[in-house]
Structure formats: structure tokens, C-alpha cells
Amino acid sequence: MVNVGHKPPLRRRAVAAARVRMAPETARRLRDLPKGDALATAQLAGIMAAKRTGELIPLCHPLALSVVEVTLTVTADTVEIVAAAETVAQTGVEMEALTAASIAALTIYDMAKAVDKGMVIEEVRLLEKTKVPLS
Is the pTM here over 0.85, yes or no? Predict the structure, then answer.
């Protein structure tokens, strides 16, 4: 792991996004799939994944997160996922936000794969990363 011991703790926030493209019929059925409500499950999965990022990604610092938010917006043929993570720490939370968005997307895929074989996960990306000194 990279030594961050010399860095001061800062208030840090990162926002990431992902998209799951699917058939319009699948998008309409996301709350009523054979496995259950894909949107509620994906939101929970994203939050849980952010909290375990340090265990999932080698050499990633484990962080005490102060908040994780995962929002899922359904359009005609996609689920747009935005995940935000915040902490006060010596290193950033972009990996936690990216992990949350990725796992939420994978959960949508897993829950809907029985009804849509053509889904695509795309555009997993970091949207924002900020750090502010403690006041």
C-alpha cells in the first residue's frame, strides 16, 4: 500500500456513475423480476460494496465511510447509476464510489439476465472528486 501517514486528514467526497443498457421491456419490469426488485437490491448492493472496497481491491486502503449514497434512475432503455461516498481520511474515496456504481450495475445485470440476454454495462466512470480541509 502507498504510505499516506504523512498526509493530513481531509473531508473527501467522490461521485461515480455507471449505466446498464437493456431492452425497454426489461426497464419496465425492473421492480417485478423473477428474483425480485432489482432497483432496491442494486442500491443496497452498491452501499454494501463501497463499505468493503478495501477487502475487494488489493492494496486499497480500508476507509471508515461517513456516507454512501446510490441512486438509480430508469430511462426507456437504461438504468443510470450514481454513487457518492464521503469520509474524513488521508486518502480519497474514488475507489469506494466506483465500486458502489460497478456492483450496483452488476446486480441489475444479475437480477435481469433471465429476461434480457443483451444487457450491456457501460460508462463506469468517476464524475467528481473533492477534498476540503477540516474546519
Answer: yes
Amino acid at 73: T
4 belongs to a structural domain: no
Tell whether 3 is covered by a domain.
no
Q: Please state the domain count of the chain.
A: 1
| CA-atom Rg of the chain in angstroms | 16
d(CA 84, CA 26): 26
**Please, where are the H alpha helices in 2-135?**
24-28, 38-51, 53-56, 94-112
Catalytic residues: 110
pLDDT tens readout for residues 72-112: 999 999 999 999 999 998 888 999 999 999 999 999 999 99
